[in-house]
Specification:
By secondary structure, the protein is of the alpha/beta class. The protein contains 5 helices and 7 strands; from the N terminus they run E-H-E-E-E-H-E-H-E-H-E-H. The longest helix is centred in the middle third of the chain and has 16 residues. Bound molecules: guanosine-5'-diphosphate and magnesium ion. The site of magnesium ion (MG) has 2 residues, from helix 1.
């Protein structure tokens, strides 16, 4: 079966923006899966000579008691359980948050390979230095990207497919 990559992280870090950025002409299928909340979306991605299924998730807010947010967390956990590689996205503009650390713990427990992606690094000046902070999550090298400007995507995907 095809390798599965799940994009997880707090709401608003830019998961769906990356998901859509990868939805170029090379995307074979974009589909909602019946019986699954709209927060969990699958698409087949072809990149260089690799193909994999990408799962977008609604986001994880670890401590929220809010019903929607806890359902989103549940969906994200299903995506994590299904995935071969997890693409963990954080936001350089917000910096490292408590929720990021909790999501990191959750991902560590999954035992799956995790690729740390620092989004919203739109410029090389100040943003780039702020990326180093995310080493503190203890899950390895942070890969800076700008999903909006489609920067850093190649290096990120190279790291992702290296775990297949
Ligand atoms: P999600 O909740 O993680 O799926 O986040 P979205 O993809 O919906 O994005 C949340 C907000 O962040 C939107 O306003 C996006 O336009 C913005 N955003 C996403 N990627 C970037 C980026 O690379 N740079 C900047 N500056 N904003 C971004
Ligand atoms: Mg989204």
């Amino acid at each position: 079966r095809k390798n599965i990559v799940a994009v997880v992280g707090r709401p608003n870090v830019g998961k769906s923006t990356l998901f859509n950025a990868l939805a170029g002409s090379r995307i074979a299928i974009v589909q909602d899966t019946p019986g699954v909340t709209r927060d969990r979306i699958y698409q087949d991605v072809e990149w260089l000579n690799h193909s994999f299924t990408l799962i977008d998730t609604g986001g994880i807010e670890p401590d929220s008691k809010d019903i929607i947010l806890s359902q989103m967390r549940e969906q994200a956990q299903i995506a994590i359980d299904t995935a071969d590689v997890i693409l963990f996205m954080v936001d350089v503009k917000q910096g490292l948050t408590d929720s990021d650390s909790k999501v990191a713990d959750m991902l560590r427990r999954s035992g799956k390979p995790v690729v740390l992606c620092v989004n919203k690094v739109d410029s090389y000046s100040r943003d780039s230095l702020d990326v180093y902070e995310f080493y503190n999550l203890g899950i390895g090298e942070p890969f800076p990207i700008s999903a909006v400007n489609k920067l850093g995507i190649g290096d990120l995907l190279e790291e992702v497919v290296s775990h297949f």
